[in-house]
Each structure stands twice: as structure tokens, then as C-alpha cells.
Amino acid sequence: MKLRLALACTALFFASLPAIAHAETAPRTVIHVVTVKWKEGTTPEQIQAALDGVKALPQSFKGITRVWTRSIKVQGGAANAFVMEFASEQALKEYAGSDAQKAWYKTYIPIRERSTTFDITN
Fold it and tell me: Which of the four pLDDT bands, split at 50, 70 and 90, describes residue 25?
């Protein structure tokens, strides 16, 4: 009897692995990917201040869970890219126009020539 129970538990465990793997590789969070071209004459210090502002956003807006700011490769004429991970689509909606966004925009908008945004989820 114990052997049957152990075999059943083992079979159940292995049967659930694909669902567990999918959950780990297909999160329900929202990734907000932004590519940026800076205005001519923007200094490296101004760019760093804008990127540091992205890094600080999770402390001022709880719906942002993670950020990435170090661009390894950027295409299409952009100079940098950054990513914000939002806890949900609702958090992304609430971020738009929030005090946190408005505060960061004071550093970011004056030096941004153009940006392209992609919001992605599963």
C-alpha cells in the first residue's frame, strides 16, 4: 500500500512539472520596454540621472517590481533602452499619470527626443 501511494505521488509530481515550468516561464506580470533617443546635446550625466530615476521608481511606486537600465544592444537609432516590470496590467494603468511618473518625468522628458514603448505580458 505504501509503495502504491509513493508511486502515485511520484506520478502526480512528474505530471505537474509542465504546468510548473510554464508558470515559471510565463509570468503574469507586465514588462514595459522603452527605447530612447536623447536630444542632441544631452550630457552623459543627464542620461545617467534619467536612468537612475528609473532605478528609483520601485521605491516610489509599489506596482513596479523590477527595473533594468543597462543597455547591452539597442537597435533602430535609439541610444538606450530600459525595462520596468509591473505587478499587473492594472498597476501599469495606475502608473500612468501617477505622482511617481510625474516626478521622474521632470528629469526624463526634457532630454528625450523620442521613445518607443512596448507593453508585454502573457
Answer: confident
β-pair partners for 86:
30, 64
Radius of gyration, alpha carbons of the chain: 21
Round to whole Å and give the CA distance between 41 and 32: 27
pTM, rounded to two decimals? 0.79
User: How far, in Å, are 17, 18, 29, 37 from residue 7 at the CA level?
Assistant: 16, 19, 36, 58
Q: Give all domains of the chain, ordered by start, each with its CATH number.
A: 26-120 (3.30.70.100)
Q: What are phi and psi of 25, to 5 degrees?
A: -100, -5
H helix or E strand, kind and range, residue 65: strand 64-68
